[in-house]
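Progress against Task 2.4 (sequence-to-structure conversion) is shown through the following example record, which the project officer requested during the mid-term review.
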Amino acid sequence: KVKVVGGENHFVKWTDAKQDPMILQKVEWTAMKRHGRAFEKLLRSYRNNPCCLLDVCRNCLVFEDMTSLTNALGIIVTDESVRVERLKNRMSSDYHSKETGGYRDVCINLKMCGKAAELLGAELHMCEFQLILEDFALLRTSQGHGRYVQARNSRGT
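Structure tokens generated for the chain above:
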């Protein structure tokens, strides 16, 4: 599902959005990480090593249920045109959700691979995808993100 503009969080299936020009123009596309935050993260967390900055290009995929999320994950990890570099399963019962205020997702860092990626010069570019359940996505607000930023800054990360 994709987020569309209009008051509170509202999500529609991508198959519906791409077929309806009115919905398609309301899709909220994810922005790349801002320069200031990228530099801050490099200095605070990665000792100025840009190889550690994996979420400059990022997006969120929203799913109605765990079955859909799991099926998508299977498709991604078996796709020959991508190489999964890192996978964080924040849905696992082993994950300490107190660190994220109860927030849970599956985070994938991947690179495109193959001839097409090489021709575009994209084979070294890392992307991040958060696979999240719609119930969690509906709880995300700008105020909640502000609290996350305050907590992150107090930890110095």
